[in-house]
Design goal:
Its EC number is 2.6.1.-. Its cofactor is pyridoxal 5'-phosphate. The chain contains 14 helices and twelve strands. By secondary structure, the chain is an alpha/beta fold. Helix 3 packs antiparallel against helix 11. It is globular, with a radius of gyration of 21 Å. Bound molecules: pyridoxal-5'-phosphate.
């Protein structure tokens, strides 16, 4: 066999082999393992959205190749959503491109702007695709630490000037996976100024912008004055509408970046199956009660998880958005040893923070995307094995 390309060999190593082996052993031994590790909504896609795909499946034109940039009608629905929700005006023809899930676009935007040796600024901890896409394009991630003392926002003023000058892309993600942190419009204003100063493309991942609680409505980066001159935002149907398996998202914002992404994609993929795009239109234009109901359900789970962790000794505030809790590991543990301990002793899986980057060390992520009774059972087991923890 020929040598595997460096771009693949340079991808970060897979960290979870050991813990996965442990999980398999436990399952084989008959343990009922409960996973708090997976960020994938457990409830089904709402019925009115499923109904639309069934209807569109019967339309023969929908069986043919879609266009790679996406149905104009879907892009118009995205523009209507931005106008309604954020007061942001978008030209659906030139400022929106359909994606096969936002993950696809996040990986490909790196190919659009990074030549070998170019730098992308990547949050750490962060969704692994920012670094992965950068490395596959031959670029170099420069990691921006997201630390609790800074509210898990990167300190842009700490990026060395030579690095900022070499960088072409700045990846950001608020509400944030894995930290559940949120960003205020004033932070986004700083980002726009920084991007202008160093001629960067801001790539804001807004996957969780609709998953929020207690009346909080997360802002769009594109609503920041000047944002459309320096950035694009990745949107996704996956999290608000329980559509992770459908593969539908978009990129919107700066016209040139949207055009380049569409051009690159037209050489790689042939777009999203049209019935799925029609279902996406239904999701965006249709009743939003389903989103409110999901958020109400996540809030119930969040509150019972926060209460249980507080009883065990964690000092935490309930997150305002996302379906994650990002918690410090008790003293005496690393991220990995804590995750392994919980599998071994409680049959409970959490994600070690190091899976999201070096600065995830000392933390673990809990996902609320499992039936409430299962979450409760997992928390009971954790209390049993941990008792009171200290830090
Ligand atoms: C789930 C998630 C996405 C969404 O990915 P899709 O490809 O649209 O399903 C994007 N970014 C982050 C941070 C996520 O957690």
């Amino acid at each position: 066999m020929p040598e595997v390309a460096k771009r693949v060999k340079n991808l970060p190593p897979y960290l979870f082999a050991r813990i996965e082996k442990l999980i398999e052993e436990k399952k084989a031994a008959g343990v009922d393992v409960i996973s708090l590790g997976i960020g994938d909504p457990d409830e089904p896609t709402p019925e009115h959205i499923r109904e639309e795909v069934r209807k569109q499946l019967e339309v023969p034109e929908n069986h043919r190749y879609p266009t790679s940039r996406g149905l104009l009608s879907f892009r118009q629905a995205v523009a209507r959503y931005y106008a309604r929700r954020f007061g942001v005006e978008l030209d659906p023809e030139r400022e929106v491109v359909t994606l096969i899930g936002s993950k696809e676009g996040i990986a490909h935007i790196a190919w659009c702007y990074l030549d070998p040796g170019d730098v992308a600024l990547v949050p750490d901890p962060g969704y692994p695709v920012y670094a992965g896409g950068t490395i596959l394009a031959g670029g170099e991630p420069y990691y921006l630490p997201l630390l609790p003392e800074n509210g898990f926002l990167p300190r842009l003023e700490d990026v060395p000037t030579e690095v900022a000058r070499r960088a072409k892309i700045l990846f950001l993600n608020y509400p944030n996976n894995p930290t559940a942190a949120v960003a205020a419009p004033s932070f986004f204003a700083e980002v726009v100024a920084f991007a202008k100063e160093f001629d960067l493309l801001v790539c804001h991942d807004a996957a969780y912008v609709e998953v929020a609680f207690d009346g909080y409505r997360p802002p769009s980066f594109l609503a920041t004055p000047g944002a459309k001159e320096v950035g694009i935002e990745f949107g996704s149907l996956s999290k608000p509408y329980n559509m992770t398996g459908w593969r539908l998202g978009w990129a919107a914002g700066k016209e040139e970046a949207v055009e380049v992404l569409g051009r690159l994609k037209s050489n790689i993929d042939s777009g999203v199956f049209q019935p799925i795009q029609y279902a996406g239109i239904k999701a965006l234009d249709g009743p939003q009660e389903c989103v409110k109901e999901m958020n109400a359900l996540y809030k119930v789970r969040r509150d019972l998880a926060v209460a249980a962790f507080r009883e065990m000794g964690w000092k935490i505030d309930p997150p305002k958005a996302t379906f994650y809790l990002w918690l410090p590991v008790p003293s005496g543990f690393t991220s990995e040893s804590f995750a392994e301990y919980l599998v071994e002793e409680a049959g409970v899986v959490v994600t070690p923070g190091t899976g999201y980057g070096r600065h995830g060390e000392g933390f673990f992520r809990v996902s609320l995307t499992l039936p409430t009774e299962r979450l409760q059972e997992a928390l009971v087991r954790m209390k049993r094995v941990l008792g009171k923890v200290s830090f």
